[in-house]
Amino acid sequence: MNLNHSVNLKEAIRFHGHLGPYLVLGILAGELAVRLLKCKKYFGLKVKVWGADKKPKSCLIDGLQLSSGATYGKGNIKKFNGAQIKIEVLNELTQKKIVLQFKDALLKKLEEIKTHKDSEILARELYRTTPSQLFNCELITNND
After folding, report:
1. Can you tell me the distance from the alpha carbon of 55 to that of 107, in angstroms, rounded to the nearest whole number?
2. pTM (2 decimals)?
3. What angle do helix axes 59-68 and 9-16 make, rounded to 10 degrees?
4. Please, which contacts does 10-13 make with residues 24 or more away whose CB atoms are closer than 8 Å?
5. pLDDT averaged over the chain?
6. Which ranges constitute the DSSP H helices of the chain?
7. Are 119 and 20 in contact (CB under 8 A)?
8. Which tens digits make up the pLDDT trace of 78-110?
9. Would you tell me how many other CB atoms lie within 10 Å of the CB of residue 102?
């Protein structure tokens, strides 16, 4: 299977400081949202993230910034408190949005991490996984 990533792991590690599963999940979620929404990176989208307010879950946000181009400096990514991780990406041109949440099997894998080495192994495994195996995805075409 050929997964064409817009962000390579070396670039992500250099930006974030280390490799972990939440960083990779942020990369994959951003890539998936940009592709499905057909939106312009950097300025053509808005990202909202719930449930990623503390480490290691907050590492997800760095991956989202890398893959979507949304940044805190531009104000097109925002973080909210939440019991579970949820990612919402809006295509500003079409007003279509996508909502991504982790699948149960992914949550189970994340809970099984015991060491930093486990974390890195899972991160590399996730990077090679098709996003549809990791995320529940809802496309919303009207802006209610």
Report:
1. 16
2. 0.95
3. 130
4. 11/66, 12/62, 12/63, 12/66
5. 95
6. 9-16, 21-37, 59-68, 104-111, 116-127
7. yes
8. 999 999 999 999 999 999 999 999 999 999 999
9. 21
56 preceded by cis ω (within 30°)?
yes
- Does residue 37 contact residue 91 with C-beta atoms inside 8 Å? yes
Domain 9-140 has CATH 3.90.1150.10: no
Q: What is the token pair recorded at 80?
A: 């909210």
Task: Give 88's contacts (C-beta < 8 A, 6+ positions apart).
Answer: 47, 48, 49, 97, 98, 99, 100
Q: Mind spelling out the 3-state secondary structure of 18-57?
A: CCCHHHHHHHHHHHHHHHHHCCCCCCCEEEEEECCCCCCC
Distance (Å, whole) CA 70 – CA 89: 10
The two three-digit tokens of residue 38, written as one number: 């057909």
Could you tell me the residue ranges of all domains in the chain? 9-140
